[in-house]
Each structure stands twice: as C-alpha cells, then as structure tokens.
Write a structure and sequence with these properties.
Strand content: 15-25%
Strand order of the largest sheet: 12-11-10-13-16
Number of domains: 3
CATH superfamily of the largest domain: HUPs
Helix content: 25-40%
Number of helices: 14
CATH class of the largest domain: Alpha Beta
Radius of gyration: 24 Å
CATH topology of the largest domain: Rossmann fold
Shape: globular
Structural class: alpha/beta
C-alpha cells in the first residue's frame, strides 16, 4: 500500500515549486500551462508563444530516481500528488509525459551547457530525463497577495505609470539610492522586486529588506515605493533573465522595467549592421525597458555622476561594486560613507557581528562625544557615531 501511494507522488524542489506558483498566478503570460512535447518543440523553434516572446519552453522535469520511476509508469489521467520538502503542495492530472535532454534544457535556459559554470551545473543536477504536462492545483500562493499590494499602492497615488526594478541590494549602496531617486522622477510608482535566491551566501533576504525599508521610510516619499519579494528560481538564470524579468513585471501591472547596464543578458551584439541587445528580441510585450547608465563618484565633480555625462577619466572615479563593498562588511569594516549610507552600514554590521564588543557602553563613552546623560546604546548606534568620527576632517 505504501509503495502504491509513492507511485503517485512527485517530489519537487523549492525552485520548481516557485516556477509553478508564478505560472498559476498568471505572471508568466503568454504561458498559461505546462507545455507538452509539441508546444515545447515549437517554442524551441520560434521563441514565441501566441506570437509573444517566451525564451524557452516552460516544462516540469523533476530529477531523482523516485520521480523518474513515477513518471515512467504514470498514465494520462492519473492524479499525482505534489510534495515540497515532504509537505503537500498540490496535485497534477497527467496529460503527457515525454523524454527531454537535460543538457539541451540547460542550454535553452542559460545559453550554455558548460558544466564548469556553477550556475549551469546547479540547474543540470536538478533536472530529470522526463517532463510532464497537465493541469495542476497548488495549495497556497502568496503571489496574489503581492498583486493586491501593488494594486493598492497604485490606487493610493492614482498611478498612471508604474516602473519595476529588480534589485538584490546586496548590499544597498549609494548608486542604488541614486538610481531609485532618478527613476522616481520619471514615474508615479516604483515596484522594487527584491530578489530572494534559494542559496543565499551573502546577506540574508530579511537584512536586505530591512535596509531597503529603512531607506524608503526615511529618505523617499514612501507611498510611491512598494517592495515585493521575488523568488529567484532557475527560470531567471542566464542570458534570458532580462526577458523573464520583463514578462513578470508586465504581468504584475508595470509599464516600465528599469535595469542597469550590468544586468544579466544586456550585453550588446552586432546584427544586420545594427547594435542590438537581447531586449530587441522582446516581441508582443508592451512593457518599456529602460537601461540605466552606470553611476560612479567622481573626485573632480565631487558627487555621484553617470559615466555617460562625466568628462573626467576613470582615474577620478570611485566605483560601486557590490561584491567589494560586501567584502568590507563581511570582515567587519565600515565602508566609507561615500559608498554606503552610515545608518545602513551600521544596520548590516550589527546583524553580521552580534555582541561583537566585550564592553560596548565603556567603549561608547570612552571614545565618543556624549550628552552627559546616561543612555543605553546598541551596536548599531555605536557604528553610526563611529562613522561620524571618520568623517571629521579638522586634523586631516
């Protein structure tokens, strides 16, 4: 009896579950269902679904020996129970099961099947040999709540134009702030999709959300910015990422997607005597895609500038490379205020190094100016005051 039950179960990882959730919420339109073999081959050939761009077939091909046996033995009309982390997730009624080439599948998504690339290898290892199509239902989805949040924000400011931004904020630095501000000048409402990968090696999502909320609540007209979590599953990987970003943003009700020059897949190529990018492949999708210039701090201009408008050379520029700024934070150093707002640096360091100081109160009163009143201070307060000392210039 136990064996019979398991023959009717498919066990999915969280990335597959996330993709199914996007599909069921209507966020991947023009794709509305799991694709069968005929539809799969058509998308591979044309890159279109109902005359609209979709960069690769949307199929479900879970890996693992147990899943492979279930799919090999399943028949049309069978009901398969879906599980994620051993918890019930929904069910699927089998329509068609067909073989796929996992290596070719990786190439369709990532643009390469080079298994020495960690991202390519990760996708390849989670794929099975069989894909399944059919109608499915899932038990819970928070994505419709996200749609409601965006619609409520639109109604609140009577937004006629809404711009999406995909952002990791890992960490949130001054160039991010400048990009958000300049985008806000051109739109009624910004929806920041804060990326939530399944394998977080740097700042956890909750910390990144807290820094973004702090900036919005204290330095922006907060009723014109809404933050939505975006689970960064395998379909957002590789050179097709910007196309999926645009499709999801439009289905969330955004008119424009603003991306940076270093966004995955925006690299230019030369075709038919014209410079193009992958954005030019977008067919039948009405969303406008705006590619923002790179921001740097110029020692001559004494401010943040676009590399497109600054006349001074690179030797005058301070760059905003998230990886390097994060490296300073991970070893416990306060990044200079020109790179990150001191309050945000303090918040992150307090999270990364809790209870770092043996006697914080003594340290605080020994080296920082005080009001004379006995006050309680936390590590975040200490970092902020310490940065103020770093910014003191009378002895330099």
């Amino acid at each position: 009896m136990e064996s019979s039950r398991k023959n009717k179960e498919l066990h999915l990882d969280k990335e597959a579950a996330s993709a199914l959730c996007l599909l069921s919420a209507g966020l991947l339109s023009p794709v509305t269902t799991l694709m069968n073999k005929t539809e799969t081959l058509e998308v591979i050939k044309t890159g279109l679904v109902n005359e609209k761009t979709f960069p690769f077939p949307f199929i479900l091909s879970p890996g693992g020996k147990m899943n492979e046996e279930v799919l090999k033995n399943a028949k049309k009309g069978d009901r398969l129970e879906l599980f994620v982390d051993k918890e019930a997730y929904g069910h699927l009624i089998v329509d068609e099961i067909f073989e796929i080439n996992p290596r070719e599948r990786v190439r369709q998504i990532y643009g390469t099947d080079d298994l020495s690339h960690p991202g390519v290898k990760k996708i390849f290892e989670r794929l099975g040999k069989y894909a399944i199509s059919g109608k499915y239902d899932i038990i819970n989805s928070s994505l419709n709540k996200n749609k409601e949040l965006i619609n409520e924000a639109k109604a609140r400011v009577n937004a006629k134009h809404t711009t999406a931004m995909m952002m990791a904020a890992n960490p949130l630095h001054r160039a991010h702030e400048r990009l958000i501000r300049q985008t806000l000048d051109k739109t009624d409402l910004i929806v920041i999709f804060l990326l939530k990968p399944y394998h977080e090696n740097d700042l956890i999502y909750e910390t990144r959300l807290e820094t973004l909320d702090y900036f919005i609540n204290n330095f922006l007209p907060k009723n014109r910015v809404v933050v939505i979590p975006l689970e960064q599953s395998y379909i957002f990987a590789g050179y097709n990422e910007v196309l999926i970003d645009a499709i999801v943003a439009q289905n969330y009700g955004c008119n424009c997607l603003t991306i940076g020059q270093n966004h995955a897949g925006v690299g230019m190529y030369y075709d038919q005597n014209a410079h193009k990018s992958i954005v030019d492949r977008l067919v039948g999708t009405n969303i406008e895609i705006s590619i923002a210039a790179e921001y740097v701090y110029c020692n001559e201009c004494k401010t943040l500038v676009s590399t497109n408008t600054c006349p001074h050379g690179q030797h005058h520029h301070i760059n905003y490379h998230s990886e390097s700024i994060l490296e300073l934070l991970k070893i416990g150093l306060l990044p200079p205020a020109v790179l990150m707002r001191k309050e945000i640096s303090a918040l992150i360091l307090a999270k990364l190094f809790p209870d770092r100081f043996k006697n914080l109160e003594k340290l605080y009163y020994d080296i920082l100016p005080i009001t004379g009143l006995l006050e309680e201070h936390n590590e975040q307060d200490f970092y902020i005051e310490l940065m103020k000392l770093y910014q003191t210039t009378s002895l330099t």
